[in-house]
Amino acid sequence: MIRSVLLASGLAVALCIGGLVATPKASADEPIVIGQALDFSNWMLTYDGQPQRGMEIAVEDVNAGDLIAAEELGLTEVNEAKGVLGGRKLELIKCDTKADREQGAKCGAEMVQGGAKFAAFSCDYDMGGPAALQYAAAGIVGVSVCGSDPKIGVQGIGPTIFTMSTAANAQGYVLAEWAYKQKGWRNAYSLLDNSIEYDKSLCIGFDERWEEMAGAKLLGKDVFKQDDPSISAQITAYKAISPEPDVMMICSYIPGGASALRQIRAAGIETPVLTSESFAGQFWFDSVPGLANYYHGTHGNVFSPENFTADEKEFLDKYQAKYGEMPPSSHVYLGYSMVQAYVKALQQAGTDEPMEIVKAMETFNDVALLIGPTTWTADTHIQNRRPWTFFEAQGDGKLSFIEKFRAEKAWDIGQLKAWD
Amino acid sequence: MTFFFQIVIDAVSLGSLYALTALGIGLLFGILRLINFAHGNFITIGAYALIVPSTAVVATPFIGAWAWFLMIPAIIAIVIVVALGTERIAFRPLRGANMSSLLIASFAVSYVLDHVIILIFTGRPKAVNVGAELARHISFLDLRVPAIQLVTIAAAIILLGGLALFLKRTSYGIQMRAAAEDFDTARLLGVRANTVIALAFAISGLLAAVVSLIFITQTGILSFRMSLNLVIVAFISTVIGGIGSLVGAAAGGFLVGVASVVLQTVLPDDYKLTRDAFVFGFVVLVLIFRPDGLIVTRAVRERV
Amino acid sequence: MGSVGPLEKQLRRYWPLLSLAAILFVIVLVVDATGDVLLQRTVADGLIKLIIVVGIYVFMGNSGVLSFGSIVYMMVGAYAAAWMTLLPNLKKFTLPGLPDFLINTQLDPLPALILAGLVAAVVALVVALAIMRTNPIAISIATFAVLAGGYTVYNNWERVTLGTSSIIGLPMYVNMWICFYWALIVMGIAFFYQISRFGLALRASREDPVAAQAFGINIYVQRVIAFTLSGFIVGIAGVLHGHFLGILTVAAFWVPLTFITLAMLVVGGQNSLAGAVVGVVVITAATEVFRQLEKGAEIGSLVLQFPLGIQEIILGVIMLLIMMFRPAGIMGGREIPWPFGRPKPPRAAVTESVEAVEAAKPRAGD
Known about the structure:
The structure holds 3 protein chains of 3 kinds.
Chain A: H1 2-19, E1 32-38, H2 45-64, H3 76-81, E2 90-96, H4 101-113, E3 118-121, H5 125-138, E4 141-144, E5 161-163, H6 168-181, E6 187-193, H7 197-212, E7 217-224, H8 232-239, E8 247-251, H9 256-266, E9 273-275, E10 294-298, H10 310-323, H11 331-349, H12 354-362, E11 367-369, E12 372-374, E13 388-393, E14 400-405
Parallel strand pairs in A: 1-2, 1-3, 3-4, 4-5, 6-7, 6-8, 8-9, 9-10
Antiparallel strand pairs in A: 10-13, 11-12, 13-14
Helix pairs in contact in A: 2-11, 4-5, 6-7, 11-12
Chain B: H1 2-32, H2 38-48, H3 68-91, H4 99-121, E1 126-127, H5 132-135, E2 137-140, E3 143-146, H6 147-169, H7 171-181, H8 183-188, H9 193-219, E4 221-222, H10 228-241, H11 246-266, H12 269-272, H13 275-289
Antiparallel strand pairs in B: 1-4, 2-3
Chain C: H1 6-34, H2 37-63, H3 71-85, H4 88-94, H5 100-104, H6 109-131, H7 136-156, H8 158-161, E1 167-168, H9 176-194, H10 197-207, H11 209-214, H12 219-245, E2 247-248, H13 255-268, H14 273-295, E3 297-299, E4 302-304, H15 310-325, H16 348-364
Helix pairs in contact in C: 1-9, 2-9, 2-12, 2-13, 2-14, 3-6, 3-7, 3-12, 6-12, 10-12, 10-16, 13-14, 14-15
């Protein structure tokens, strides 16, 4: 027995050594390595999968001299040289975190060892955190593909850590302002799925901003849990609220959110429902037959072809050519934008030294990446006022573009400053 | 008053769902001392069988598109086959092993089935619309309740009643009851182990299939982790009722369902989040003060 | 054994522990020599799992009562250590629910680790006092109910645990060697416990409760002792886990971790320390090999690559096969035998029971 144990560990040792001896040194023609410690196979795939593909396409574009919006970003020389910093190619290295924390930390270390000085980590703060801590410890730049927790940045994990996404509280702000200003709603109700932090911050943001606005009232709130088989008790309580609210904000994610919405609509409650990016598109619409009065705010538009911008169209054509389908959610833009941001920072800094890249990224002020204007500052490594794209579904089984809307008030990350 | 009855129906229907799940787990636990965590996979597989196996993001209905009188038997048949298959492949070779080996085996089975689902369908949730008419609310006396709640209650009554009749009146039923009370003695008295155990798995498959259809009618969405919580709750319930007692398992499930709804309704907002802690706390108390559960059978009284 | 020298006698006595320590030492030494950071992480992670599994073993192996809920003591230990090691400034803002004395202190890693282990032990003691009187099946399910209850409470106790969010800022001082030292210490504790009067008494009650009671063994007390010790060890694993990852989330301490650690113990063989250790080594090694295969491995001219997601299926099947063909686990309840001549009687458990009964004899008259 012991022999076979030793054999097995010996084999493991041999395999690892075989796989990982190469440590690239910086030189003019070496490729620049970008790491991806993401979930490739487990449940986080719903969120990580699309940005992962977006990065994939962006890297191919850079290497082929075909980067989208190169001119607007001042990156024409990258396209001419078919590479960054005078023609160096980009290269992706990957590690499957399997939505597991220990595995995530290992993947983070693997990216560092693989020579990445810029690397992506999972959407979620809890799941991505272990990899991000490895990046922070090694002093390389780590960017969350779609994490929306403000603790991801300087105030939490470390000074080299960023996220592409908009803070969950800020998402709550923009949803509240849009509902108030564009729809004219005044009485709201919020239903919180308290199983993850994102949902809590989203509802906190929404409630906070809603109650600040003149004449807006929060008539009630309730909680449920992602895996509750039935929310009938909450529905019964909702029906007792009078007058009927103008809008119901649901802070949850798929699958639990879809299940809740199905039960709400089945109960004959036709109150307009508002959701944010975690409802990730329309792939789950079969769950709620004839879904109407549904309003959804998210990063961007992948649903309404007639409203695509030229850049979005160019990207989606490439996506379709490569994957043979349309992306299910706009998170895909975050991945592409991440590589755009890195390329811009590389060109600006003239080096791939992580601290220089961080400094370059912190100068970004409404830089027009594919995902939209992006701003990072020395103390805010997350978006707090990026325009949000609004859609509606009115019984036709699909999301239709309404508008892009930018909140007037930016959510203040200040309360987290004390973390330093 | 209407509000009160509404709550009662909410509570009874959730209780019924838990009771059906708990019964499926309690049945095997009584006979085999097997805490069958794969029971959740039976439920999941029943639900996934409704759609075409594929990794596509948008699911295409498969059995879910059939008429209900074909769909229900088909799903039940599939889940029973899966249940019998796991028995034959995984659990029969382990007959007589101790409780922890059985538990780990059921964990391994569950782990494998989970990842088979992921491999075929990916880890992404999938939508499926089954029984939309049932999910709608209907007027009932002075109340408006979702038909599915009434169906759940009816299904629980019919299945529990049917099972009770089966256990009381038929020869196999009596053998099974004997086996649940004291498997070793029952065998000595001529109860055929293979038949009884296969039958128990088939019944637990039937119960899982019904739960999965109710569940999916209610939620309309599939994910490979969809039944983990349900199974944990059901497992806890079998304990409250009394291990090895089928009536106890059903009663325990019922009690937990009712308690969850009542707690959700009466707890102040800040404590709603911790309603499960109350339920689990109650379980610990039951175990301390009535270690044999609320309904005692001979089986658990120390074999010491 | 008259002809055996005293040194050999001692060696023999401690051989089950020494041999396991030696195996781990060789693994750690070899991995250290490769200088491969990733492999070191894998081994460190495996060693933390080993500490958990040994902790579970101390109760479950010796008492024969299935413990479902040990991970809750890991969570208690991990958070207790975080409360003691985080920067006071950080705690003031993020964990305002902590009592002042905790907010204002910042301990060094080692005292924090030991204190946190003790906190976990105290919690385990309280739980054990409450639940250990009932029958074995009720106990094992009660341990699970405690896990589920504790999990819910920590998940919602925002002011102290940050609830569903993660605590970051834990000093990341844990590396492979530190895990190794603690694995050694913990294995030592488990070994000396199992050959102590208490351990032997509990093992006797596992084999034959009636006889054990007849000899005056108080099963309740013995179970409480083992469960408390088990809580201490698992709590230490929790501390190491937190300071290894640098991040703490309640969601990590739930059913998946419970299962994988129980599976390691049962696959190795729950009735011996060697079983606990071998189970961890085998499953960790298998997982790592499959992970490499998933990435694609060259063996000679052959390139082996698993499709994504298949490793879990194979791992599950292997566990199932081991359960089928060796229902008592790989080690079958045995410790590692003395390799030089004169084999011990094959069924170690029997001998132990006899020893246990002897050990308990003086108490029979009390």
